[in-house]
Automatic annotation (TrEMBL):
InterPro entries: ADH-like_C, ADH-like_N, ER, GroES-like_sf, Lipid_raft_assoc_Zn_ADH, NAD(P)-bd_dom_sf. One of its GO terms (molecular function) is oxidoreductase activity. The lineage of its organism: Bacteria, Pseudomonadati, Pseudomonadota, Gammaproteobacteria, Pseudomonadales. Gene3D superfamilies: Medium-chain alcohol dehydrogenases, catalytic domain (3.90.180.10), NAD(P)-binding Rossmann-like Domain (3.40.50.720). It comes from Pseudomonas batumici. This is Quinone oxidoreductase.
């Protein structure tokens, strides 16, 4: 089969389009014919050597949608989707024509989603879902999402609205504020960190119950914007990994910080998440993804380079 593969890390030039044997599923596994595979920034970072536990040689790729062609009878011929921490790191991933994984690591794809649309959602939506679950977002929770225009941020807003939360998006540019407001979402424009609390209090008097910072740069500023006993969820940090936390203000508010890392969840745990929110697409509660850049797997090297350079398109590789 055709696959993207790297045998060393540190430079994207290590990634090559190769011919490798089609994998054979073990007992309890499925063989999935990949119809579409998402390309996430973490896939690029993996080739660049940012994850010490990656074993080599390796086929990258976390998110996928496809058809089961070998495995338990109940799954044969079924259209499925999935994601998980093993894929592309300690086991071969989805940037190939075929993929093996545990049968319990796939779930039936929502019928309203195309293969490409389903493959675009795994990492962003499981990350957002985990953030909402672990920071206890429910009906009437006042939720601020910083970086609300990004893939994870927009997923968090959409999923939180279904839960009945009161949502507020924070973005950098005025046109991004307008885009959110046009969708019926309250929004504020990020400016100086010291001004964040005042902006939030104009919408949520007393502060937000939960603040989800998807950018990694607003943790210190989020503490004054937090309501008593509030939670701050984070999925990123500055390049050096360090930030000055106003601990006195945080504990006086009874606040807490929740770290969110999608790479803590294997394919089986992710399948359970996908099954929980996937039905919302078929029920019309979640918008179908648009604006995807679909690209042949043979052009994957160029797509990796574009994502590494900060390209904003959501890339879907088509084997």
């Amino acid at each position: 089969m055709k696959a993207l593969q790297f045998s060393k890390t540190g430079d994207l030039s290590a990634l090559q389009l190769v011919d490798v044997p089609t994998p054979v599923p073990a007992a309890g596994e499925v063989l999935v014919q990949i119809k579409a595979a998402g390309l996430n920034p973490s896939d690029v970072k993996n080739v660049l050597g940012r994850f010490s536990y990656t074993t080599l040689p390796r086929i990258p790729g976390r998110d996928f949608a496809g058809v089961v062609i070998e495995g338990p009878q109940a799954l044969l011929g079924q259209e499925v989707w999935g994601t998980g921490k093993e894929l592309g790191f300690t086991g071969d991933g989805s940037h190939a024509q075929y993929l093996t994984l545990p049968a319990s690591g796939v779930v039936i794809k929502p019928t309203h989603l195309s293969f490409a649309q389903a493959a675009s959602l795994g990492v962003p939506f499981t990350t957002a879902w985990d953030a909402l679950e672990r920071s206890l977002v429910k009906a009437d929770t006042r939720l601020l999402v910083i970086g609300a225009n990004g893939a994870v941020g927009s997923a968090a807003l959409a999923l939180a609205k279904i839960r009945g939360a009161r949502v507020l998006g924070a973005v950098r540019r005025a046109e991004q504020v307008k885009a959110l407001e046009d969708k019926g979402i309250a929004a504020i424009q990020l400016d100086k960190p010291e001004d964040l609390a005042a902006s939030v209090n104009q919408v949520f008097p007393g502060g937000a119950d939960v603040i989800f910072d998807t950018t990694g740069f607003w943790l210190p500023a989020a503490v004054p914007a937090l309501a008593p006993f509030g939670r701050i969820a984070i999925i990123a940090a500055p390049a050096d990994g360090h930030v000055q936390l106003p601990a006195l203000a945080l504990y006086r508010k009874g606040g807490s910080v929740v770290g969110i890392n999608s790479l803590l969840y294997g394919t089986e745990a992710c399948a359970r998440m996908l099954d929980q929110f996937g039905r919302f697409f078929d029920e019309g509660l979640l918008e179908l993804p648009t604006g995807l850049l679909e690209s042949p797997l043979s052009e994957g090297l160029a797509r990796y380079a574009e994502v590494d350079q900060g390209g904003s398109d959501k890339v879907i590789l088509l084997p």
